Amino acid sequence: MTERVAVTGAGVVAPTGIGVEAFGQALRRGRSGTRPITAFACDGLDTRIGAQVDDAAFDPAAFVHPPKLLKLMSRPATFAVAAAAMARSNAALGPEDVDPDRLGVCLGAGGMGPLDLDLLAGQAMAVLDAASDAGTPAFDVPSFARAFRARTNPLSMLRGLPNLAAAHVAIQQGARGPNTTVATACTAGTQAIGDALRTIQRGEADVMLAGGADSMINPVGLLGFSMLGTLSCRNDEAETACRPFDRDRDGFVIGEGAAVIVLERESFARARGATVWAELAGCSATCDAYRITDERPDGSGPATSIRRCLRDAGAEPADVGYINAHGTGTQMNDRIETQAIKRVFGDAVSIPVSSTKSMTGHLLAAAGAVELVACLLALQSDFLPPTINYRTPDPECDLDCVPNAARLARFDAALSNSFGFGGQNACLMIRRW
Amino acid sequence: MPDDSSLVSREAIPDLVRRIVADVLMVPLDKVGPQTALVAELGAESIDFIDLVFRLEQGLGLKIPLARWGSFIEQRLEGQDLARAITTDVLREFAEREAGLG
User: Which residue out of A42, A106, A309, A362 is catalytically annotated?
Assistant: First the structure.
């Protein structure tokens, strides 16, 4: 019999709150974190709203030693480092409490390359320089290379490597054990936590720091998702733009942030007298193997993932008391996810299913990690986070989506769903300890 | 020898170098003296020297191949403990030489 794996700490940097306390309060109050984007000028773009981390409340320098490492960190890396430090402190896991070789890190990351504004501006200006050198708008690589070299700090590339968030967390936390980065788009955070569970089950680590971090609130990220037609265009109703399971939903709102949890082997957690939030009971990760952005119309892809997660946890559908949906607020996701849930839990499913993305926006590679923290807070404090902005029922999404206000409820197990481009499906299950 | 000479005057170089060191290693300006050891005292690592040379290029308005910094150090500090020997002053010397003032 494999030992259970305990969640002993959690840290979060989210658009609705920094730290588990603030984030939990926002969930209970159903507070929206979606706003007009202020990170850069969006005039004229189809979508000009997002869920940004409040820079006035978030000081990365408080979590980074020595400070010079900050210049090597992308925005998501700073979120990850902060979330990991908060999670470890929440777990009361001191520097002497774990052998560094038995402490690992597994994070979901965006992997879309260096997209911060500095580098983007450097590239764009280099293209312009190259064009004016050549006296023609044609793109000429040698001219571009000369201009790029003169304008771009050589360290910029290091900020864009997808594995660097996990590396920075390892440096800050002295974690010399297994270190993995998962790049499965919007399932990455969920899958990273699942992989960390497996790492402990395989006996390769006693403690894992697991989660995800992402930020695509930059011109390329925003335009990219916008041009694919996935983003809400409710620019004049920024706070209520994301409407999962509502008939009039028109897309997701792009978010940013990170969450990291501390996972420990049961005997290790007991030996050090750790306080346990919950058991991380099971995980799954599958692929539709169908199309890149369309999901199988019958919902069988996500349903397979949900079933495998339950089986991995040794649980029955009836054991699940709350489902945190992927619930992006796109027409397709919410319809197919409803079908998938019904395939597993029955047509007359009565389990509450909410989408916290209605409040946080879609944190992409960090989404699953932040949503697992939402599940942990809900389990611990006996409430169900709401799906806010819910107005008009959709017969194709006829679930109890905990509309608009949090609900008091005690439950013993929660399931968290994440689905992503490429047909990725991943689930996690937590259970009362 | 440098491709062409810098527009920065000899007098301006010590201050420019100090500011670059403070910016790159993210330490207060008053922690950067002429004899401050960049590695042993300010924690510089290999990529910080890439950053230092890049910022010197920008500050002096010159192109400085990275390899030239390597060979300068090799000759100038031969046999010494580089962690202690690479000081702000050594970087200033390099900057002056690149600017055609050395």
Answer: A362
Residue that is written with structure tokens 């967390």 in the block: A169
Instruction: Summarize pLDDT for A98-141 with one digit per residue, the tens.
Output: 999 999 999 999 865 556 666 777 777 777 777 777 666 667 77
Of B27, B51, B63, Cβ closest to residue A155: B51
Write out the residue range of the structural domain in which residue A137 sits. 117-159
Residue pairs between chains A and B whose CB atoms are closer than 8 Å: 29
Domain B10-98 fold = 1.10.1200
Nearest to A214 by CA among A116, A284, A91: A116
Check if the interface score ipTM surpasses 0.85.
Answer: no
In the 3-class helix/strand/coil scheme, how is A348-369 assigned residue by residue? CCCCCEECCHHHHCECHHHHHH
| Nearest C-alpha neighbor of A85 from the set A163, A15, A172, A24 | A172
DSSP A400: -
Chain B residues bordering chain A (beta-carbon distance below 8 Å) = 24-27, 43, 47-48, 50-51, 54-55, 57, 63
The verdict on A315 and A222 lying in the same domain is: yes
Same domain, A222 and A128: no
A151 and A81 belong to one structural domain = no
Q: Which of B20, B41, B47 to mutate to test the interface with A (most CBs of A within 10 A)?
A: B47
Sign of CA dihedral A407, A52, A42, A227: negative
Partner residue opposite A153 with nearest CB, options B25, B51, B63? B51
d(CA A169, CA A190): 18
Is A168 designated active site? no
In a shared domain, residues A101 and A126: no
Statement to judge: residues A186 and A316 lie in one domain: yes
Contact flag A68-B48 (C-beta cutoff 8 Å): yes
| Nearest CA-CA distance, residue A43 and chain B, Å | 32
Are both A59 and A74 inside the same structural domain? yes
- Least confident range from A160-164, A177-181, A387-391: namely A160-164
Q: Which residue has the tokens 């397979």?
A: A304
